[in-house]
Amino acid sequence: MNPDLLRGNLDLILLTILEDKPLYGFAIIQEARERTDGYFQFKEGSLYPALHRLEQDGLLAAQPGELGRNGKPRKYYSVTDAGRQALTAKRAEFSSFTGAVGRLGSP
Amino acid sequence: MTAATTELTPAVRAYLRRATWGLPRERQQEVWDELEEHLLTRAAQLQACGAAPPEALARALAELGSPTRVSAGMTGVYLMPKLILMAGADAVALSAALYALAGGNDGNVITLPVLTNRPITPSCVRGTAPISYNVTIVSRRAGITCYTFNDPKVYEGAYLSLSSIKKAVAAQGGNVTTLSSGTIRLNLTTKSKPNQIDLPSNFTVKGEKYYFAAAIASSFYRNQSNSVKFQGYQPPVIVSDNLKLQFGDSTQPEIGPAFYRGVALELLRYVLHGDAQGSEFSGSIFSIYPADAGVHKLKTTLKTSEVAMLVIRREGQNYDLDVAPVDAAGQITFKSSQKRLAFVSDPDQLSLVYPDGRTPALLVRVTNIPLGNLKSGIFVPAKTTSDAPN
Predict the structure, then answer these.
(1) Contact A68 B3 (CB under 8 A)
(2) Collapsing DSSP states into helix, strand and coil, what is residue B329?
């Protein structure tokens, strides 16, 4: 897929993935890949800064989970109430956008 | 950094160090742990699919992408002004956009607003009053004479506010403290030792103190390795492996001359000695824009937007310097106190005495060359002499 599309909608995608259950970074990548049959191939180097930014913006919250392979607790991200509101708004925005693009392409 | 597991290879440690470089100390460990966990989990997954351990770890590293990109993204989150972040773009996209604006590299870009004119405030002397026709006496009282310069260029320069200085230093992993004298101290750490630079303020505007932009430039490349490069003229940019400092923007054409005027002597130090912290350099700039300047228009093969420096040795360690950009036609216009120049290819040749009275002059491209190798920027144009019109 066009990486610009992924980058431009990264917040929407991450919030959607985390909407139902908290996940840690590596698991988010796996989840995205599995739920889209490999369509979303995250650049990990972009993922972590995005997660931290969403956390800083209050749209995600982080909590420690089970120990990872480095012996440290894994950092799980979950969507906050503000994040759910943002997700609703982003979905509406995305829907309007794709709808408009669709209408442009209609005969 | 305290994270350590028996599974970490030197390559992984190097990656994590680079990826967490420049982050606030309290964030470094957190990001380190998160990335380390990711790498080890992915490597284990690849091993389960049949990859040998070294290959698995190498692939996991490759998939994680450039540590510079991670570092840029993270410093974008934790160091960029909150106002910018709230503009809506995600940090990586923002970083990429700023990077593109600055001319492009892989690193985090910090744009520092530059003030180009300091307030015209009187200079005062006790005793003998200045008699130069270039000054205006504004007061005489109790043996103290105060005056201002008539030439507004005297008040031109490239100045950074304290908040910009702090931002630039924080991006390098350091901090700024204010000494009791009012001087600020830039606390930076090189690979081997702490590096402290003290800066007195130049002036205050609307309650904010300002400092020479060249001083922060100097701190930047002294604190980094000699791989630091300069780029561009409008605006000037200093680039390291993972960070760009951009001074002002392209709407302020006056920044380029003022900025490079401030760093010219440091650049010369690199040309002559190859290191800003090598043997002590006792030279001084005799004059950058002498009143009786000769104008030399030189045709070069350099690309547009490269910047070059003209060096003439006047006597001893006194040099006459000018820095100018290459224009769209590949031409550079220098000013010099000397009107008949002969270009040489080595700094040692600056002492040559030509029978025809020409002055030896050295030309050095100063952009897009690591400072530690700046001497490689020396070039001689196809026309090896120049005669400035009278």
Answers:
(1) no
(2) coil
ipTM given for this complex: 0.88
pLDDT in tens, A30-80: 888 888 777 777 766 778 889 998 998 889 999 888 888 888 889 999 999
| Inter-chain Cβ pairs, chain A and chain B, closer than 8 A | 88
Residue A7: pLDDT band with limits 50, 70, 90: low
CA distance B94 to chain A (A): 11
Cβ atoms within 10 Å of B197's Cβ, excluding its own: 18
Residue B314 in tokens: 């006047």
| A14 in contact with B, Cβ within 8 Å | no
- Is 1.10.10.10 the CATH classification of the domain at A3-96? yes
A94 in contact with B, Cβ within 8 Å: no
Q: Whole-angstrom Cα distance, residue B312 to residue B324?
A: 15
Asked if the Cβ–Cβ distance from B37 to A7 is below 8 Å, we say: no
Q: In terms of DSSP H, where are the helices of chain B?
A: 10-19, 25-48, 53-64, 67-78, 82-85, 91-102, 162-171, 213-223, 255-273
